[in-house]
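Internal ticket - ligand job 407, S-adenosylmethionine:
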Amino acid sequence: MVISPAVYYALSDIYTKGSWIGEAIKHHLPGFMMEPMYFRLVHTVVERDYLTEYRISRLTDRPPKTSVKIILKIGMALLDVFNIPEYAVVNDVTEMTKVVGKRGVSGFVNAVLRRYAREGRELYPEDPVENLAARANRPRWQVDRYINELGMEEASRRLLTVKTEKAHIRPARSFGKEALKQALDEMKCIYEETEYGFYIGGDCKWHGLYIEGKATAMAWSSIDVCESVPYEGGMILDLCAAPGGKSIYFAEKYGAKVVSCDKYIHRVKLIKEYARTINAKGISTILLDARDLIPEWKGQFPVVFLDAPCSGFGSLATNQDVVLHRTKEDVEEIIKLQRELISVAAEYVAAGGVLVYATCSDLPSEDESIVRSLLENRNDFSLEKEKHTDPIKGGGESYYCAVMRKK
Ligand SMILES: C[S@@+](CC[C@H](N)C(=O)[O-])C[C@H]1O[C@@H](n2cnc3c(N)ncnc32)[C@H](O)[C@@H]1O
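stdout (C-alpha cells):
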C-alpha cells in the first residue's frame, strides 16, 4: 500500500490553515468518493487528535513540528484503527514522509512509529480530567467546561457517547419511506431503518435520489427536534433557517407557510436551492439579522422557531471540525448571541402560540440557561416541554429543544 500524500496535504491545511475538514478533502482528495479509505483516514486523524498528541508527547523528548506530528498521527491511525500490520505502516509512512519533502525526518518518523507500535498504543493520561479529554478527544478547556456545568459523571457520559460514521437520510414527503426503502434495496445499499428514515453506509450511492428530489440527508436528531414542535395551524417563522432542513421539514409535514430567515445571503440562497430540489412548497426566504426587531411582526406568529447558532458540541458525529477550531471565546460570543436572539424571537409569538428554541449543543449554558433566563424575564411564557434528543438513536449526536407557550 502506498499512502497518498494528498492525505498529508489535506491534514496540513486543516491543522495549519484552519481549513474545514470537508473543504480540505474536496481540495486535495477530489475523488474521495472513489477512495473512501483516504476520506476515513483524514477524519480518523482528527477524531483522535487529543489522544495522539498526548502519546506523541510521551514518546518523544521534544515536541516535533506540526508537520511531523501530522505524519505520526497518520501512522498511528493506520496502526490502531485500520489494523494494518506494523511493518507495512512503518514502511509506507516513512516513504510518504520522503514524498512530501521531509526526507530529513524520515528516520525519526520510522523510529517513533516503531516505538509506538511496541509500547505506545495503551498510553493514557493518569490524571482523570486529562484522561477524559484524551478518550473523548476534546481539548482540555472543553472538558473543564462540561465538568463545571454538569459534574464529572454526567460530563463523562455526554463526552464519551459513541459516534456513528453513518449518514441519516429521510424521504421527501412526495416520495415516501417505502419507496425510499425499495430504492435503497435496488441500489444494494446496506441500511438501518429508523422511525424517520434510514442510516446508510458510506458506500451507498444515494445522491441521485437527492438530485431527483426523492430523499435528503437530515440528522435523526434534527428530525426529532422538528417532531417536538407542536403545530396547530398558521404560519411558522424560522429565524435562523439556513440551509433550510427544518423549514423544509415543516413545510412538507404540515403544508404550513414558513417564513425562513438567515443573516447571510449565500445561506439564504441555500434554502431556496434546497426547497427547489426537494420540491417543497410554501417557503418564503428573507435576509435578516434576527437580532434586529421587526415591529410589524410583533405577536403575529403562532410558531416561532429559533434554531440558534451554537457551538455544535452536540453534533460531533457529523461535525468534528468543531473540536479543532472552536475556541473558548467563540463559545462566550455564541452564548451572548443566543440571549439576544431568543429575546427578539419571543416578541413575535402570537398569544397562545409557541416559541421553540433549539440547538445542536449539549452544553447547558447554551441550552437550559438561555431558556431559563428568558423565562425569568418574560412571565408571559411558560415552559411546556424540554428535551435532549436521544444520543443512541441520534448516532452519538444529541440536540436540545424547549417549547415555551405564550399566555
Ligand atoms: C444551526 S444553523 C440553522 C440550521 C437550520 N435550522 C436547518 O435545519 O437547516 C444556524 C443558522 O443561523 C444563522 N445565523 C447566525 N447568526 C444569525 C443572526 N444574527 N440572524 C439570523 N441568522 C443567523 C447561520 O447563518 C446559520 O445558518
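Auto-summary: The mean pLDDT is 94. Residues 222, 240-246, 261-264, 267, 288-291, 307, 309 surround S-adenosylmethionine (CB under 6 Å).
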